[in-house]
Structures are given as C-alpha cells and as structure tokens.
Write a structure and sequence with these properties.
393 residues, alpha/beta, Rossmann fold, Arc Repressor Mutant, subunit A, 2 domains, 5-stranded mixed beta sheet, 16 helices
C-alpha cells in the first residue's frame, strides 16, 4: 500500500507509544483506515491485529457479552498479551457496546488500541462517557490544499499568513491548475488521485450517497432520506451565508425540529461546519446567526450549481480551518469581514481582489482591535501589499 504525507500523521505517530487509546474520527473515506495501516506498518510492536467492523464476523466477535471471550479468540490466533500488542478497530460505531469492551480490555490487559469512527456525535458523547481519560481524539478531514499537492508530488511550504503576501508568478503558474481542482472537486483522497474528471464526479456522488445511506442511518433513524438530501441541496447553495432555519423550514417543507435535528447530524458527522459571529459590541452587531460551510468542495458542488465565488470562499474556509479558530464579523448594515482567524487576522475573500477591498476590511477590523488584515483572491489581477493568492494559504 502506498502512503502519502498527511499533516495529522506526525501527531498520530507521536501518540502511538502512549497507553491512551488513539481515536481517529471523521467522515467516511477521508483516509482514516490508510492512516491506521500506516501507523501499524511503522510501529516497532510486532503483535498487530486489525479488525474492520463492516465485516460481520468481526462485529460478532466484539459483540460478545463475555469480554474475556474476545481475548481468548485473539489468543487462539497466537496473541500473547504478556507482550506489547496493538489492536486496530475500524468503524467502531457499528458495534454499540464497543466502548465498554475497550474500557474492560484497556484496564485489564496491556493492549494499545487504535480505533476509527465516522461520527463525532458518537465519539465525543457515547464513547467519551465510558472512556474518560483513556483516549485522545484526532479529527481527520478531507485533504488540505497542501496535502493535495503532496499527493501529486508537488511541494509548497506552509508559511505564516504575513509571509504569504509575497506573490511569485512562477509559483502561481505551477500551482494554479491544482488549485482549480481543489476548488472544483475537493479533497477526498481517492477523488484527488483519480485523473479523469467524470470519474472524479462519480466518486463524489458515490461518497455522498454512502454517507446518507450508511453513516447517517447508523446515527439516526431517518424516515425520509429524500428530505435529508433536499436539505443538503438547500444548504449547498447557502455556502458562506448565515443560517436561517425558518427559511429552510419553509422552503424544504420540513418541520423546524426535524431541520434542527438534521443540521445537528450533518455537522457532527463532518459534512458541514458552522462558524460564529465575533462581536465587539452586542448591541450593534448580529450576534446569534452562524455562517455555513461544507467540509469538502466536491460534495458542496455535487448537489447544486454553485457560483464560482461561493466555491472559492468555501475552499478558503477549508484551508483556514487548519490554521486556527474561525469566526466572522458583521454589522447590522450588512458590512462584514468574511473570516476572523484566532481573533488576530481579518480576512476578506474576493475572486478578483482590489485595493479598495483591503481598505474596507482594514477599517472594519479596527472595530475589533485587529491590525492584521488581508484580502484573499483567486485571480491575481491586482497585486497590492495586503493581497494573498488563495493557493498560498
């Protein structure tokens, strides 16, 4: 199996020698299984066991009511738990009692567990209750743009935002086609590695169908998947806008409690992400509504025809997501800052940026006491000191 460079891998490898359970969570097909197999391949521990819970025989084994029977089954396979051993388990949410199994085996035997799951709702709630203090959670997202470049054998160092303003035309020409692919088709590893555009699109549709029919149905009893898909479609054309649940309820013809439940599921199973408003003066700014983004551009684009500006802003969101905490800022008169990063950087997103955009975002940033403001653009038509080409972030 070929392994590619993932930013999170360094953190995973550093955690592998620790007794705590290493937990990888994230949407299906973001590369969790590959990361687990890479960890196993590079571990000095020779006793290694891998179980995929999508296999019924593995599910039956870990559904045993007598947990010692699981140990006996492994011993029959040659395991010696007087020596170090790693047990990797994929898709743990498919076996409801697995947290209890892991707690017992963790406390009783010297086993290092590496596990994956496709739902932060499950991992952070049900899983956390029985394994408090016994695990560390790592979230795995679709590829960042830098990871996409690595998958294509292209290098681009990560720089502080202040240094990304140094525009080099040769670098732009070298990377622009990769960045266009990232904006249009997102960062699922197998989509990135597929060279044919139509096959990329087919893979994205397959991933979304699998997500709705498998992941979501595992988490909740969805009576009408068509309603859920209709809501996802409505959300995709609202990328970068404030969530208006009343309007969604009216357009979709779905009750408000159902819409709210769906939104909760979609966010906690890694399809969408919302960010809060950053308010310096609650009596003057809009303080409650959250802005919506998709955690993969390919998924967002597959269900509705998005404007190129919306796709670009969603791509920038996914790039900034890996740099720190995100919020937005907006006055009641509609003037806004698209992203505020770590309460330190004010960032406006424009496909074709102009110096006047820089002046406007700088003026708004003073309301927040922020002195570092930039305009992120897709096309380097105008270059000015506060301009950052999107591919650099």
């Amino acid at each position: 199996m070929q392994f590619y460079n993932r930013t999170i891998y360094t953190l995973l490898k550093a955690h592998l020698p620790k007794k705590q359970i290493t937990v990888l969570t994230g949407m299906r097909r973001t590369g969790k299984t590959t990361l687990v197999k890479q960890l196993l391949s590079e571990s000095p521990i020779r006793q290694q066991y891998y179980f995929d819970m999508e296999r019924m025989d593995n599910r039956l084994l870990f559904a045993e009511q007598n947990y010692d029977n699981i140990v006996h089954a492994l011993v029959q396979q040659g395991a010696d738990f007087s020596q170090p051993a790693i047990v990797a388990i994929d898709e743990i949410q498919l076996v409801p009692n697995l947290p209890s199994v892991l707690k017992y085996l963790y406390d009783t035997y010297g086993i290092k567990f590496v596990v994956t799951g496709s739902s932060s709702f499950y991992i952070k709630n049900l899983f956390s209750e029985s394994l408090a203090g016994r695990k560390k959670i790592f979230e795995v997202y679709p590829l960042s743009f830098r990871e996409l470049l690595d998958f294509n054998g292209v290098s681009l160092p990560r720089l502080p935002l202040e240094e990304t303003t140094h525009f080099v035309d040769a670098t732009y020409q070298r990377l622009r086609s990769y960045y266009a692919d990232y904006i249009n088709y997102g960062g699922f590893p197998e989509v990135v590695l597929e060279p044919i555009v139509e096959d990329k699109k087919d893979l994205i549709h397959e991933i979304l169908s699998s997500y709705i029919n498998f992941d979501i149905s595992t988490l909740s009893e969805i009576r009408n998947p068509a309603n859920l898909y209709r809501l996802i479609k409505l959300l995709s054309v609202r990328v970068g806008t404030r969530l208006d649940i009343s309007k969604l309820t009216s357009i979709a013809g779905i009750s408000r409690p159902t819409v709210e439940n769906y939104l909760y599921l979609l966010e906690n199973s890694y399809l969408i992400r919302t960010i809060p408003v950053l308010s310096a003066s609650p009596d003057r700014e809009i303080t409650k509504a959250r802005k919506l983004y998709f955690l993969d551009n390919g998924i967002a684009s597959s269900v509705a025809e998005l404007s190129s500006g919306s796709k670009f802003e969603n791509a920038v969101f996914n790039q900034l997501l890996h740099r720190g905490e995100l919020a937005y800022y907006q006055l009641k008169n509609g003037r806004e800052i698209d992203f505020v990063l770590d309460k330190e950087y004010a960032l406006e997103v424009k496909e074709t940026a102009a110096p006047d955009d820089a002046r406007q975002v700088a003026a708004l940033a003073t309301n927040l006491g922020i002195t570092k403001s930039y305009v992120i653009g897709r096309e380097p038509v105008n270059r000015f000191p506060q301009f950052i080409w999107g591919g650099y972030i």
